[in-house]
Design a protein that fits this description.
36% of the residues are buried. The protein has two domains: 120 residues, Rossmann fold (3-Layer(aba) Sandwich), CATH 3.40.50.1010; 45 residues, Rubrerythrin, domain 2. Strand 6 and strand 7 form a beta hairpin. It is elongated, with a radius of gyration of 18 Å. Helix 4 packs across helix 5, helix 4 packs across helix 6 and helix 5 packs parallel to helix 6. The longest helix is centred in the middle third of the chain and has 15 residues. It is of the alpha/beta class and 174 residues long.
């Protein structure tokens, strides 16, 4: 059975893809546009030429679902358009009955994927737990589940801080 990997920029910046066999790689055009150095561009072009890397764009309904999930997990302030797109591409595959593996070293990307039930591969090996973020005012202790305008506390105006409220150890959840 062929494994489907959805690649973030970090996966294409590394040589990790060259070590994989009997796989299909998926990514978005936004990810490819983030490749600036010659070796990573060359690797991506070689993968495309060999029909191992397919470039697809996520559907708007999947993007909307990812954005909703980022608000629930508290990761919305940490994700770029490219990040949302790559998670949405993995979600589209997941919704088609494929079990894709999202490959990244970006904690917010990986955390969002986990919240959606998508399998992950952390290239950095540093992600140890899944988190839900909240925003807390250090002055009056007001709490919000989502970022607020200008990150100012709606009660007292102090800049709110992002904190992890719930954590799941990844080694225990498997």
């Amino acid at each position: 059975m062929t494994t489907v990997y959805v690649l973030d920029t970090s996966a294409l910046l590394s040589t990790w893809t060259q070590q994989q066999h009997e796989v299909v790689f998926l990514t978005t055009s936004h990810v490819l546009s983030e490749l600036m150095n010659r070796p990573s561009k060359s690797r991506a072009e070689s993968l495309i030429s060999a029909d191992l890397l397919q470039v697809r764009e996520p559907d708007t309904k999947d993007i909307s679902q990812v954005k909703k999930s980022t608000k629930e997990s508290g990761d919305s302030v940490s994700l770029s358009i490219t990040d949302v797109g790559i998670v949405a591409l993995a979600l589209a595959e997941f919704n088609l009955g494929v079990n894709p593996i999202l490959v990244s070293s970006d904690f917010a990307v990986l955390n969002t994927a986990l919240h959606l039930g998508i399998s992950i591969l952390d290239l950095s090996g540093k992600m140890r737990e899944q988190r839900v973020w909240i925003y807390v005012c250090p002055a009056c202790k007001h709490r919000e589940n989502q970022p607020v305008l200008n990150m100012e506390c709606p009660t007292c105006g102090t800049i709110m801080q992002r904190r992890a409220t719930r954590r799941w150890n990844l080694s225990e959840s498997k």
